[in-house]
Amino acid sequence: MDPNVVKRNDLLAQKVIKGLQSRNMTGYYVQTKEEALKLALSLIPEGSTVTMGGGMSVIEIGLVDALKNGNYNYIDREAAEDRRAAMLQAYDADFFLASSNAITDDGVLVNIDGNANRVSAIAYGPKKVLMIVGMNKVCSDVDSAMKRARNVAAPINNQRFNGNNPCTKTGACANCKSPDTICCQFLVTRYSRHQDRIHVILVNEALGF
Ligand code: SF4
To answer: Which of 20, 39, 51, 183 gives 90 a disulfide partner, CB atoms 3.0 to 4.6 angstroms apart?
Structure first.
């Protein structure tokens, strides 16, 4: 990475961490996926019940594989016979893993969801929420974070799952109300009332989308 970009991101990350602190959330900053994995595992005690609500960034740093192969009670909703039951178990997990569709440079988290299992678990339920967020997702304010979530993250997610939505074909949001839309619920996390619940690991790499 260009040293000027690294320096810019280092300064930006410190601003985001301060913003998170002011909102009763905890931020961390690492340079690489490998460091992010190491840090995440140091925050999750062995024996914890862990689940996730989708999040390519979590997979990309190798955290899901490490948890599945380690001494953790990892609830795998993809492998569960009863997917709804697995999703409901998430609300009482020790750790819920996710990324964020966007984060503002003063620490507001913006997320969009279709089923709402992910945004609802971020809002309430699991004892702790651990987010892995690439610096590519940092935006200057809530408006631009919302635009990023609507115009970047959601269309790419639709294309991944080949949803029957306009953005699957065009790559751009058409503000649809199709039955397949994944833009049903919008969560803006402005403050966490619960001390020590939401932890965000910022990574100085492009992760997820
Ligand atoms: S509102 Fe519709 S078109 Fe826009 S990103 Fe969501 S699913 Fe795609």
So the answer is: 51
Residue 208 domain flag: no
Which of 169, 170, 178, 209 should be mutated for ligand 1, with most atoms under 8 A from CB?
Answer: 178
Q: Are residues 204 and 31 in contact, defined by beta-carbon separation less than 8 angstroms? A: yes
As for how many domains the chain has, the answer is 1
> Which residues are within 8 A (CB) of 21 and not within 5 positions of it... i.e. 6 or more apart?
27, 107
User: What are the mean pLDDT values of the chain's consecutive 10-residue runs (209 residues total)?
Assistant: 85 98 98 98 98 92 97 90 87 96 98 94 97 97 96 89 90 93 96 97 95
Residue 174 is part of which domain span? 3-203
Q: What is the CATH number of the domain that holds 45?
A: 3.40.50.10420
CB 158 within 8 A of CB 149: no
Assessment of whether the complete model's pTM goes beyond 0.70: yes
